[in-house]
C-alpha cells in the first residue's frame, strides 16, 4: 500500500499529515514555533524554526504510522504565503523572514505603484501593491537594510525554503509565486519587465513549476534528518489558499470555498483570468494547470470570536478543559437561541483593519446597536453573523466578476460549527457543504504530489477520488429574507464610519 505526505508550514506551526491514496488520514503531527513582533505592525519568524518543525513532525508521523518510509510515493508542500527568505551566496539566511501579516511596507507599496504604474501593475500581476505581498518586503529591505540587500543571492517563499532544505533545489510554483507580485500571472512566469523596473535580479528567484510537477527529490542529507527515503519526489505544492482549495475540491467552476480561520477567505476557481480592477479581490494562478483563482480575504473572521473568547469567556474555557471539549462549542451554543439579527446588534469584524472589500488598514471593530437589553449571547451571535456578512461582501464581488456559484464548501474552524454553517447558507442563499477531511492544505498538496508521482491522472481526478462530501445544509427561505434586512444595514455602516476611522488613527498617532 502506498502513501502521500503533506506538509503545511503555517504561521503558528507546521502540520504534517500522512494520507493513503483515498485521502484518509493515517497519522498527523504538529510542531509549533514563535512569532517575533519587535514593533507594532511587524511580524517575523526564523526560517530555521520551520525546518526544525518539519524534521520533528515528519519523524513523528513516520513513527506513529509504523510504515516504511519507502512506501511514501510523494511529498507535497504548502504554507503561509508572501513571506520572504533571503539567502546569501553560501545559502545562509540573511535575516528573519518578514511574513504575510507584517504591515510595515505601505511606503514601499506606494513606491512600487509609482515605479510600475497602477494599470501596468494590474496588467502584469493582476493585483495592486498590498502590504502583505512579498515585493513590498523586498523593497523595504532594499530601502532600510541595504547592507543585507547587497548580499542577496536567493529569494524564497516559506514553503520553498523547506523545498530547498529537503531537495537542495531553488524553485517555486505558480500559485504561491502569484502572491509575491513578481509573477506575470496571466503567462505563469516571472516578469522580467517588472523585476527590472524594481531592480530585483531575476536570478534570485527559483525555477517555476506548475503545482503538481515534481520539483526535486529528497536529498541524502534531508533523508537522514527527517527519516524520509532519499529520492522521494517532492511536488511543486501550493500556497495555503490554493492548497486548501484542492483539499476541498475547488477545482472546477461553480464550487467555491468559504474558510473561517483566523482570517476568512472566499475562494473561487476560474478557467479564465478575470481581475477586479479596484483590487478588492486577489487573482492568482490556481494549483490546477491552466486555471486561476480569485478570492476575497477578511482579516479578522475567526480572530473576532477568538478575541471574545480570550477576553470574556474564561468560564467556558475552564469548563471546556474539564469536560475535554472545544470551548468554541460552549460559546457558540449560547447563540443558538438568539433570533436572527441578534436583537438588533450588528458587529463589524474589522479588528485588524480590512482587505475585502474595503482595503482599509484604519478600519476598526464595532458593535452597532448595543443596548442594555443585550446579553453576552447576543454579542456572540452578532460576531458570528458579522463575520458571515463580511464574507458575503466577497462572495458578491466574485459573482459580479461573472463567476456562477452553485455550492459553497465550508472549512476552517467556522466550518466545523453547524450554526455558523447554517448562517452561511442563509446569508449567502447557497447550499453549504463540508467534506470528509478537515486537513485542507495538507491534503491538497498531498494530492498534488500524487498527480506528480503518477498516482492520479489529473488534479480534478485526484479530488474525485479523495475529496468526498460529508454534510450539506440548504438555505431557509424565511431566514434568507430576514438576513437581507440586516445585511443591507451592515453594508451601510462602513461608509458611514470610513472618515471617522481615519480621524481616530490620526489621534492615536499624534
What does this structure look like?
- This protein is an alpha+beta fold and 510 residues long.
- Helix content is 42%, strand content 21%.
- The strands form 8 sheets. A 7-stranded mixed beta sheet has the order 18-19-17-16-22-23-24, with helices on both faces.
- Helix 1 (47-65) packs across helix 6, helix 12 (314-323) packs across helix 13 (327-333) and helix 14 (376-400) packs across helix 16 (418-428).
- It is globular and about 65 Å long.
- The model has no long low-confidence stretch (mean pLDDT 96).
In short:
With 510 residues, the protein is of the alpha+beta class. Helices cover 42% and strands 21% of the residues.
What topology emerges from the helices and strands here?
Layout: E1 3-9, E2 13-20, E3 25-32, E4 44-45, H1 47-65, E5 72-79, E6 85-87, E7 97-98, H2 106-116, H3 118-125, H4 134-144, H5 146-149, E8 154-156, H6 158-167, E9 171-173, H7 174-177, E10 183-184, E11 189-190, H8 192-198, E12 207-209, E13 214-217, H9 220-226, E14 233-235, E15 238-239, H10 240-247, E16 255-260, E17 264-270, E18 282-285, E19 292-298, H11 301-312, H12 314-323, H13 327-333, E20 346-348, E21 366-368, H14 376-400, E22 407-411, H15 412-415, H16 418-428, E23 431-435, H17 440-452, H18 459-466, E24 469-473, H19 477-509
Parallel strand pairs: 1-5, 5-15, 9-12, 16-22, 22-23
Antiparallel strand pairs: 1-2, 2-3, 4-7, 6-8, 10-11, 13-14, 16-17, 17-19, 18-19, 20-21, 23-24
Helix pairs in contact: 1-6, 2-4, 10-17, 11-12, 11-14, 12-13, 14-16, 16-19, 17-18
Amino acid at each position: 500500500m502506498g502513501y502521500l505526505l503533506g506538509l503545511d508550514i503555517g504561521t503558528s506551526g507546521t502540520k504534517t499529515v500522512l494520507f493513503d491514496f483515498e485521502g484518509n488520514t493515517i497519522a498527523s503531527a504538529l510542531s509549533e514555533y514563535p512569532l517575533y513582533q519587535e514593533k507594532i505592525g511587524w511580524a517575523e519568524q526564523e526560517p530555521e524554526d520551520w525546518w526544525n518543525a518539519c524534521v520533528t513532525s515528519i519523524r513523528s508521523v513516520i513513527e506513529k504510522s509504523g510504515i516504511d518510509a519507502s512506501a511514501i510515493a510523494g511529498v507535497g508542500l504548502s504554507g503561509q504565503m508572501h513571506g520572504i527568505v533571503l539567502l546569501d551566496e553560501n545559502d545562509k539566511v540573511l535575516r528573519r523572514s518578514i511574513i504575510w501579516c507584517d504591515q510595515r511596507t505601505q511606503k514601499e507599496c506606494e513606491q512600487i505603484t509609482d515605479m510600475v504604474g497602477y494599470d501596468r501593475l494590474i496588467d502584469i500581476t493582476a493585483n495592486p501593491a498590498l502590504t502583505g505581498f512579498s515585493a513590498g518586503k523586498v523593497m523595504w529591505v532594499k530601502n532600510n537594510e541595504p547592507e543585507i540587500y547587497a548580499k542577496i543571492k536567493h529569494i524564497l517563499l516559506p514553503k520553498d525554503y523547506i523545498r530547498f532544505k529537503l531537495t537542495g533545489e531553488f524553485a517555486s510554483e505558480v500559485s504561491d509565486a502569484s502572491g509575491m507580485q513578481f509573477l506575470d500571472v496571466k503567462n505563469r512566469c516571472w516578469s522580467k519587465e517588472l523585476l527590472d523596473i524594481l531592480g530585483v535580479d531575476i536570478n534570485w528567484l527559483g525555477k517555476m513549476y506548475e503545482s503538481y510537477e515534481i520539483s526535486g527529490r529528497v536529498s541524502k542529507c534531508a533523508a537522514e534528518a527527517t527519516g524520509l527515503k532519499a529520492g522521494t519526489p517532492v511536488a511543486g505544492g501550493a500556497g495555503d489558499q490554493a492548497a486548501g482549495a484542492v483539499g476541498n475540491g475547488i477545482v472546477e467552476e461553480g464550487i467555491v470555498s468559504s474558510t473561517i480561520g483566523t482570517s476568512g477567505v472566499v475562494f473561487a476557481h476560474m478557467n479564465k483570468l478575470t481581475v477586479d480592477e479596484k483590487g478588492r479581490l486577489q487573482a492568482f494562478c490556481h494549483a490546477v494547470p491552466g486555471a486561476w483563482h480569485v478570492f476575497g480575504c477578511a482579516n479578522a473572521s475567526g480572530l473576532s470570536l477568538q478575541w471574545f473568547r480570550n477576553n470574556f469567556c474564561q468560564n467556558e474555557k475552564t469548563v471546556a478543559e474539564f469536560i475535554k471539549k472545544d470551548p468554541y462549542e460552549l460559546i457558540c451554543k449560547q447563540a443558538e437561541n438568539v433570533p436572527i439579527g441578534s436583537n438588533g446588534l450588528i458587529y463589524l469584524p474589522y479588528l485588524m483593519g480590512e482587505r475585502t472589500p474595503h482595503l482599509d488598514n484604519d478600519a476598526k471593530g464595532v458593535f452597532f446597536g448595543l443596548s442594555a437589553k443585550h446579553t453576552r449571547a447576543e454579542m456572540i451571535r452578532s460576531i458570528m453573523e458579522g463575520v458571515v456578512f463580511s464574507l458575503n461582501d466577497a462572495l458578491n464581488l466574485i459573482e459580479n466578476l461573472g463567476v456562477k456559484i452553485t455550492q459553497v464548501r465550508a472549512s476552517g474552524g467556522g466550518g466545523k460549527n453547524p450554526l455558523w454553517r447554517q448562517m452561511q447558507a442563509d446569508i449567502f442563499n447557497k447550499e453549504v457543504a463540508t467534506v470528509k477531511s478537515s486537513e485542507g492544505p495538507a491534503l491538497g498538496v498531498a494530492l498534488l504530489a500524487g498527480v506528480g508521482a503518477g498516482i492520479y491522472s489529473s488534479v480534478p481526478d485526484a479530488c474525485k477520488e479523495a475529496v468526498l462530501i460529508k454534510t450539506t445544509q440548504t438555505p431557509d427561505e424565511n431566514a434568507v429574507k430576514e438576513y437581507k434586512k440586516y445585511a443591507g444595514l451592515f453594508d451601510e455602516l462602513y461608509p458611514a464610519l470610513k472618515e471617522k476611522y481615519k480621524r481616530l488613527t490620526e489621534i492615536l498617532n499624534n
